[in-house]
Design goal:
6 strands, two-stranded antiparallel sheet
């Protein structure tokens, strides 16, 4: 359709003639209310920004000789950060002669990653950078978590329906009963 005819049609309808694909041959145009189109586009962009989640990187610092209670506190912090949807950078700083025992730091980081395995995946394996060994953990993808939950759900339903089919968690005692 010639441009003059298209402009006349748009004017008669009280709308605008907007080029959709100006690079195409011939250019593609559309008759629409341009003000309404811009308003809806801005509204969609605002909604997208509102639903967007910025992933932060939180850091948890450990040392080779960390105590069990301190370790558990740091583990709890990391799990909370991961639960909030943030990535966690776990670092072990080596001081002085600890540099001769970097394997201890690597074992500590691998143990830390193993204990977070139910909610996180290892994004970067432990790597020595100068006097620090770093490990990056990221939250498990939502699809994998849903798949795990859906796999557990049918088993739980079967167990609820038929308690006899539920596997016994009580192990038989090897000691003989004592007489009183």
């Amino acid at each position: 359709m010639p441009i003059a005819n298209a402009m006349r049609v748009a004017f008669n309808r009280g709308l605008d003639l907007v080029k959709i694909a100006p690079q195409a041959v011939p250019p593609v145009c559309k008759v629409m209310d341009y003000g309404k189109f811009r308003f809806e586009q801005a509204k969609r962009e605002k909604e997208a920004r509102k639903n967007q989640h910025v992933v932060d990187i939180k850091e948890v610092q450990l040392s080779v000789g960390i105590g069990i209670h301190d370790y558990n506190v740091k583990l709890g912090h990391a799990k909370r950060f991961i639960g909030d949807g943030d990535k966690v950078k776990v670092s072990v700083r080596f001081r002085g002669r600890e540099m001769a025992h970097t394997s201890l730091g690597q074992e500590l980081l691998l143990k830390f990653a193993e204990e977070c395995a139910d909610i996180a995946v290892v994004e970067k394996a432990p790597k020595l950078e100068g006097r620090q060994m770093l490990l990056f953990l990221a939250p498990k993808p939502a699809k994998a978590e849903k798949a795990e939950k859906s796999a557990k759900a049918p088993r739980e339903k079967r167990e609820a329906a038929d308690p006899a089919a539920k596997p016994s968690t009580v192990e038989p005692s090897t000691a003989e009963p004592s007489e009183k």
